[in-house]
Design brief:
The structure holds three protein chains of three kinds. Helices cover 74% and strands 1% of the residues of chain A. By secondary structure, chain A is mainly α. Chain A folds into two domains: 1-35 and 342-560, Orthogonal Bundle (MetI-like fold), CATH 1.10.3720.10; 56-339, Orthogonal Bundle (MetI-like fold). In chain A, strand 1 (31-32) and strand 2 form a beta hairpin. The relative contact order of chain A is 0.14. Chain B has a single domain, classed as P-loop containing nucleotide triphosphate hydrolases (Rossmann fold, 3-Layer(aba) Sandwich). Chain B has seven helices and nine strands. Chain B has helices spanning 52-60, 85-88, 105-112, 120-133, 149-162, 179-195, 207-213; strands at residues 15-24, 27-36, 41-45, 67-75, 78-79, 90-93, 167-171, 200-204, 216-219. Chain B is globular, with a radius of gyration of 17 Å. Chain C has two domains: 10-166 and 314-376, D-Maltodextrin-Binding Protein, domain 2; 170-312 and 390-408, D-Maltodextrin-Binding Protein, domain 2. Chain C is built from 14 helices and eleven strands. In chain C, the strands form three sheets. In chain C, strands 1, 2, 3, 6, 10 and 11 form a six-stranded mixed beta sheet that branches. The radius of gyration of chain C is 21 Å and the shape is globular. Chains in contact: A-B, A-C. Chains A and C meet through helix 18 and helix 24 of A and helix 1, strand 1, strand 2, helix 4 and helix 5 of C.
Chain lengths: 560, 223, 411
């Protein structure tokens, strides 16, 4: 079992991607006899390049993704540097933990309902403060430069990266290191950046890359907050890919390869940035400087974090309000009346959607966690990490845009008679859940002190007993977090659920996106809240279970 | 199963390193040919980074695959190098006590206690006796994180001893203790090992440790 | 309720269809609509997967009701598969065909019209023609006065799809902010020039946005007769020059200066509800009343039409060639054009979608159902709805969308 685990994992993760990609590469080269393309040609590429506004779309995808990732990364790092171990840090952790589970689409809806010219923020100050009885005609949502979209992505990625840092910190003995630095006269931010960051960063590097690839190819947030004249590339790809005109599929496939290049290019740029940062950072560390504008950094990071939490919380409030709202005209600060009518009217559909969502997410996550643990345990027993060989493979499902391989995958499932089954949907979810679970679990697992296992073995415990009694309990928190992340990833899947399930599996996300097309704020709010509630429960359990299981064990409480 | 074998009359009891050579990428790192009689201590000395700990990892069965080793380690005449790590019963002590943080003090000891000791009451009694032996009676339910440094070191020692090891491998086990505690724990460890007739391999860079061990000393120079 | 209708390529699709046809085994047996008793018997116990746009809760509730009624009457289970875009359903049927899946398809009935229908028809992916006009309730359909029920975007339906609702472009204004709406395109342009930022339209290729383009084109083109024929690439630029001149003048004064557009009709309606724009439009003549009834628009909103008429069409349900529950789909299609379902559908409290039936020809009980309907304060009477401008040939929309995107959505 352990020996087979890595192969099984890779097969389940990469098999569908490779099969699906074949369905992308061939049409991109113009060759798919069944669709009328009988010879290899550059025609699809030509058609793609002839699309009006393509360059703008590409630049939008690249720079909104890079800016959102960099912004989120910098805020999380500086905030942690300035405040780790303080009461404020604990407070933010408490506040952010529930927000970790907010899916992208839901966060984007909340933000849109908040900052639009007719949004809640404007309603709250109208008309008493600005004399407005009608919303101002200013372009905030969908601005041509994608600023709203960048902000929305940042707001969502900050909690994700923060979670990853929290998971990594206990392994780095950050507080002790910080104390050493303080003892040597380093101000908090400077000390943390010099001593802890180099140890934390390798552990969160993969999640950062995943964020980068996601942010450069995002569809849902771009649909809600992004520009449309033109839209970022990924949004246009989805439209082309869904076009019943089959000739569009050739061009869309070529576009999917371009999207792949954009995501890879963004990661490449990031790596160049890493090199630069390492170079500058070394010099700075060697220089012995004891401060890093500590007060300003603390102020800026604190303000950035506060703005984000404020926006997310207010967005959550406004979603709650809309889900309960009767008529609500501008500039009323609150709906004329609140009731549960909207919820009650859709109770049947809601519970059905929740049931479908969980019936996919739970088994998929369970299988992903078991496979990831089996791979990691096998690796530990062999005494050597397979890191270098498997690392690039893990990236594959995270950087290949979903739309690029899902159609090919759909045909594959049809051919083997698995179409429209829960199994097929679950397998397609597994493609995305597995790498996230693996990413979330592998770094803490590999960073764990191997001597615990050695001690246990030397005490005469056979390998299985060492795993069940020592390694797994010690990794319980990381495992629970990884499982929660797996559930969150599964809940958020839109295209796989829709395409592979033949539309027969109405999850909270497919329902929410279907409703988004209708623009009904009340229903959008309800499904956005549901989308949040499920992963939230998962993360809440992930936080609670190890805390309760080890409530009497001080060294296993989350570091604060 | 190895424990069940009676010793052949001519087999020297104790821990034997038979022409052990460890190399890394073809570069010889460390070599040792020595015999440690039951109750004796062999001290391997040398500055950090010469591969002293590698020797212990080899004996205990955790040698990283970047190393190549030849020779054999024999316990009471049995070649253990061919056994799986958990079947070697080599008691390991590191400079950190490495008490399992998710288990209580009693749980740590229960984990180590061999399964052949049956019955809840008997096992509880064995744990209580072990704790009492090092002056920690009644601490079974405690969270290891709440113990003092000296207490942790003693629990770690007893955890190894209740597992009925056939030899002790000590990897700078006293280097993190403060001076007052250090001598006390050191004496306790050697005394217990002697009382149980365990051969001990001590790896250290501290001359005081070597002196207290009162056994043979092997100096290892950087390669 | 209107499905996005993207462009398609006849040649490719038919080439694909031919290639696929060659390897296609015999089709699944199609129920004989003439022997209705047998169809109903066969349908008993079937589950019908009805793929229909799911963006409007009122419509979803109507489909739920239809499902419950069929369950009680015929023991047929209706599963509403809520789709965001009918083009996805077309893709799916094409994919099933590509995979050689001749029976047990995922789609039993699909809500469809225009380009998507034409795509499926041309590729031969629909159940054998003629069934729609043999349904027991077909004689009640008003073919004489509503020719759109048999001609979908100038394409003859040939009984391959059954109409279940009518649509006509109507405009909405909020009397609280705009008492007298402009009733010609010229007046609209003048109003927008005087009130910058208070009008917009959904971004083509969204269906409603494209319909607005077609409305302007039909009003401004020199020879309207050209619209019934495929686009002539030679004269397209000249034919559309007045349209784009109109838009060029309009855009700087649109909502957000024309730098952003609502993505669909409900989003535009939300802008009207939020007071961001003065005028919106819909393809559902009772849409305003229905939205008032559900609290989505204030009760000061009223409907108006443009002088000279507005674009109108019908929407349909079709059965794919490989549907799993063809009999059940037939029973559902027939039920959807029953007086009971059509009257309920036309009720603005429920949906507000105009009937395809000839109400005058109905039995008195059934007629009473329609006469009892309160069409709502914001719905124009049939006499006030004005003339219908037929949908142009489907190729116009494709070309208009391309030209529009190039001009306005690709800085």
């Amino acid at each position: 079992m352990l020996r087979a685990a890595p192969f099984l994992t890779l097969a389940l993760m990469l098999g569908p991607v490779i099969a699906g990609l074949a369905g992308t590469l061939l049409p991109a080269a113009g060759y798919v006899p069944a669709l009328g393309g009988t010879s290899v040609s550059l025609e699809p590429v030509r058609a793609l390049l002839a699309q009006p506004g393509l360059a703008t779309s590409v630049l939008l995808s690249l720079f909104t993704g890079l800016a959102a990732t960099l912004g989120a990364f910098v805020i999380v790092m500086l905030f942690t540097a300035a405040f780790e171990g303080t009461r404020m840090f604990r407070g933010v952790k408490t506040l952010l933990s529930p927000l970790l589970s907010v899916p992208h689409a839901a966060a984007a809806f909340g933000l849109a309902f908040l900052i639009a010219p007719s949004g809640w923020a404007m309603r709250l100050v109208s008309p008493w403060a600005n004399g407005m009885t009608r919303p101002p005609d200013v372009l905030i949502i969908g601005d041509p430069h994608g600023l709203a979209m960048t902000f929305g992505l940042m707001a969502k990625e900050i909690p994700f990266l923060f979670l990853m840092v929290l998971a990594a910190l206990p392994q780095t003995k950050s507080l002790a290191a910080r104390r050493v630095a303080t003892g040597l006269g380093y101000a908090p931010v400077a000390g943390w950046l010099k001593v802890v960051l180099p140890r934390v960063y390798p552990q969160i590097r993969l999640p950062v890359f995943a964020v980068l690839a996601y942010a450069t190819s995002v569809v849902d947030v771009a649909l809600i907050l992004g520009p449309t004249t033109p839209a970022p590339l990924a949004v246009r790809l989805v439209a082309w890919m869904n076009d019943p005109d089959l000739s569009f599929r050739f061009m869309a496939s070529a576009g999917a390869l371009l999207q792949l290049a954009i995501s890879l290019g963004a990661i490449g740029l990031w790596i160049v940035g890493e090199r630069l940062a390492i170079h500058v950072g070394r010099r700075w560390t060697d220089g012995g400087g004891r401060r890093f504008a500590d007060r300003w950094v603390a102020l800026a990071a604190g303000a950035g974090m506060a703005a984000l939490i404020g926006a997310l919380l207010l967005g959550l409030c406004v979603l709650c309000l809309w889900s309960l709202a009767g008529p609500w005209r501008f500039p009323d600060a609150l709906p004329a009346h609140l009731s549960f009518d909207n919820w009650l009217r859709h109770l049947g559909a809601i519970s059905e959607a929740v049931g479908v969502t969980l019936s996919i997410a739970l088994p998929v996550t369970a299988l992903a966690v078991v496979l990831a643990l089996a791979c990691l345990e096998g690796e530990t027993r062999k005494g050597r990490a397979l890191r270098h060989r498997t690392l690039p493979l893990l990236y594959v499902p995270l950087i290949v845009p979903q739309i690029a391989f899902l159609f090919g995958l759909q045909i594959l499932f049809l051919l083997c008679g698995l179409h429209d089954t829960l199994l097929a949907v679950a397998l397609s979810h597994l493609v995305f859940v597995l790498p996230y679970v693996f990413l979330a679990l592998s770094d803490p697992w590999r960073a764990a002190d191997p001597r615990y296992g050695h001690v246990a073995t030397a005490l005469g415990a056979p390998p299985d007993r060492v795993f069940w009694r020592v390694r797994l309990p010690l990794a319980l928190r990381a495992t629970a977090t990884a499982a929660a992340l797996g559930i969150a990833v599964s809940v958020a899947q839109y295209l796989p659920t829709l395409l592979i399930g033949g539309g027969r599996f109405a999850s909270v996300t497919t329902e929410a996106v279907a409703l988004a097309a209708g623009g009904n704020r009340r229903l959008i709010a309800i499904y956005a809240l549901l989308q949040m509630a499920l992963p939230f429960l998962a993360f809440a359990l992930a936080a609670l279970v190890p805390g309760v299981a080890f409530r009497a064990r001080r060294d296993l409480q989350p570091s604060t | 199963m190895t424990e069940a074998l009676p010793l052949p009359a001519d087999t020297p009891a104790g821990l034997r390193f038979q022409d052990v050579r460890i190399a890394r990428a073809g570069q010889p790192l460390i070599a040792l040919d020595a015999h440690i009689a039951p109750g004796d201590v062999l001290t391997v000395m040398g500055p950090s980074g010469v591969g002293k700990s590698t020797l212990l990892a080899y004996a205990a069965g955790f040698l990283d695959s970047v190393f190549q080793a030849s020779g054999a380690v024999l316990v009471d005449g049995t070649d253990v190098t061919r056994l799986a790590a958990h079947e070697r019963h080599m008691g390991l002590l590191f400079q950190d006590p490495l008490l399992f943080p998710h288990l209580s003090v009693g749980g740590n000891l229960a984990f180590a206690l061999p399964p052949r000791l049956r019955g809840r009451a008997a096992r509880k009694a064995a744990i209580a006796a072990a704790l009492a032996e090092v002056g920690l009676a009644g601490l079974e339910k405690r969270d290891p994180a709440t113990l003092s440094g000296g207490q942790k070191a003693r629990v770690a020692l007893m955890r190894v001893l209740v597992s009925a090891p056939r030899a002790l491998l000590l990897d700078e086990p006293f280097s993190k203790l403060d001076t007052a505690l250090r001598g006390q724990i050191r004496d306790l460890v050697f005394e217990m090992a002697r009382a149980r007739g365990l051969p001990v391999l001590l790896v250290t860079h501290d001359a005081a440790d070597a002196q207290a061990a009162a056994g043979a000393i092997v100096e290892i120079a950087p390669a | 309720m209107h499905l996005r209708l993207p462009p398609f390529s006849k040649t490719l699709l038919s080439a694909a269809a031919l290639a696929l046809m060659a390897m296609a085994p015999a089709r699944a047996e199609t129920p004989d609509v003439q022997k209705w008793g047998l169809v109903v018997k066969e349908a008993r116990g079937q589950t019908v997967y009805f793929h229909a746009w799911g963006g409007e809760p009122r419509i979803n509730a109507f489909i739920d009701w239809a499902g419950e009624t069929l369950k009680q009457r015929h023991d047929i289970t209706v599963e509403h598969v809520k789709v965001g875009d009918a083009a996805n359903v077309v893709s799916r049927i094409v994919a099933e065909k590509a995979a050689g899946k001749e029976t047990d398809g995922a789609v039993d009935l699909v809500w469809i019209n225009g380009e998507n229908f034409i795509s499926l028809k041309k590729a031969g992916l629909l159940m054998a023609p003629g069934w729609a006009t043999k349904l027991p309730n077909w004689p009640l359909v008003d073919v004489a006065n509503k020719p759109a029920v048999v001609t979908d975007f100038t394409e003859p339906t040939e009984g391959l799809e059954s109409p279940w609702g009518m649509a006509k472009l109507v405009f909405m204004h909020d009397t609280a902010t705009l008492a007298e709406p402009p009733t010609t395109l010229a007046a609209l342009a003048a109003h927008v020039a005087e009130n910058p930022g208070r009008f917009t339209y959904p971004q083509p290729p969204n269906f409603h946005g494209s319909t607005f383009l077609k409305q302007v084109l039909a009003t401004t083109i020199a020879e309207p007769g050209k619209l019934t024929r495929p686009v002539d690439p030679q004269t397209f630029e000249a034919d559309t020059a007045p349209l784009f001149a109109y838009l060029d003048a309009l855009h700087p004064n649109l909502w957000r200066q024309g730098r952003a557009f609502p993505q669909n009709q409900p989003a535009m309606r939300q802008l009207l509800a939020d007071g961001e724009v003065d005028i919106a439009f819909t393809f559902n003549p009772s849409g305003a009343s229905a939205a008032i009834a559900s609290g989505e628009l204030p009760d000061t909103v009223r409907t108006f039409v443009l002088e000279g008429g507005t674009i109108g069409n019908a929407h349909f349900v079709a059965i794919p060639f490989n549907a799993s529950a063809k009999a059940g789909a037939l029973v559902l299609a027939n039920f959807l054009i029953s007086p009971q379902a059509q009257a309920r559908k036309q009720d603005p409290q429920i949906w507000g979608d105009p009937t395809v039936l000839a109400v005058a020809r109905l039995e008195s009980d059934d007629r009473a159902r329609f006469e009892a309907l309160d069409l709502g304060i914001a719905t124009l009477s049939p006499e006030d709805l004005g003339p219908v401008i037929d949908e142009p040939h489907a190729s116009w929309m494709t070309e208009l969308e391309r030209a529009w995107t190039k001009r306005y959505a690709a800085q």
